[in-house]
Amino acid sequence: xxxxxxxxxxxxxxxxxxxxxxxxxxxxxxxxxxxxxxxxxxxxxxxxxxxxxxxxxxxxxxxxxxxxxxxxxxxxxxxxxxxxxxxxxxxxxxxxxxxxxxxxxxxxxxxxxxxxxxxxxxxxxxxxxxxxxxxxxxxxxxxxxxxxxxxxxxxxxxxxxxxxxxxxxxxxxxxxxxxxxxxxxxxxxxxxxxxxxxxxxxxxxxxxxxxxxxxxxxxxxxxxxxxxxxxxxxxxxxxxxxxxxxxxxxxxxxxxxxxxxxxxxxxxxxxxxxxxxxxxxxxxxxxxxxxxxxxxxxxxxxxxxxxxxxxxxxxxxxxxxxxxxxxxxxxxxxxxxxxxxxxxxxxxxxxxxxxxxxx
Length: 359
Fold this sequence. Notes:
Structural class: alpha+beta
CATH architecture of the largest domain: 2-Layer Sandwich
Shape: elongated
Order of helices and strands: HHHHHHHEHEEHEEHEE
Distance between the termini: 22 Å
Largest sheet: 5 strands, mixed
């Protein structure tokens, strides 16, 4: 698991747009300075060398610091520093050696004061090797840069984890708010039925027990299959059918593939409950209820339509719809939306979100 986290971090740096832009800008400036310094045309390898070196500095240097932190070593900064020195020295040496092999530096000038035909240079004279200086400079830079980038990514990871926990806590609070709301409405329906049809009320109590069991299971999940959501709605409709009788006429347009989709709990039930409570229930003649799921332009659409009482002036009030809007925003943000509309005798609730959000 730790290796996967480090690998994902490496891939993210390798493909990050800002990393590429920084490499292009810095490498281009260094190549330009090199042209002005030597005053001759650079070969392809000399042009590419600063780009490759900077790209590797930005992507590889944080690795040893991340490894030290992920493995939980004691004194992670000390162990990270030692590991960074060894790791960076290794790959920088390989890069510089490859550059020197394919593009060897020209012959070094003789020591100061020595001229052609004069005495030979001292035996202990060793011309300075610029590769050593380049190695030390890049090693120091890579160690410091890697520490800074690793700390930055660690802070960002902690912030993302904290934001995820906050979203999860908020979503759970919204779910806990919705569960008793469903039960309260069910009990209210039951109280009406006791006086009208005691035998039917007894059957509703059995349906209510099954509904409560499903609600308890739903409330413990962060994600459920749309098939589970459909079965919850079927249990709810069975109870409402006992109360409303022939006044409730429901139908489904539900493809087989829809059951496998993963969604937050209670994404369909509030729409059905809203249709019955505000549309079909208050109407003396009842009404029709249609529930459908479909794919449209790479988006999943849940559609709940009902006849009966017309749409209220402010359809956004109430716990169920407001709760669903809030949880939808936590799930897919602005990519999802819930629309309520009225045309003719039909009131429509349309919930849609991107298909890639439901594996």
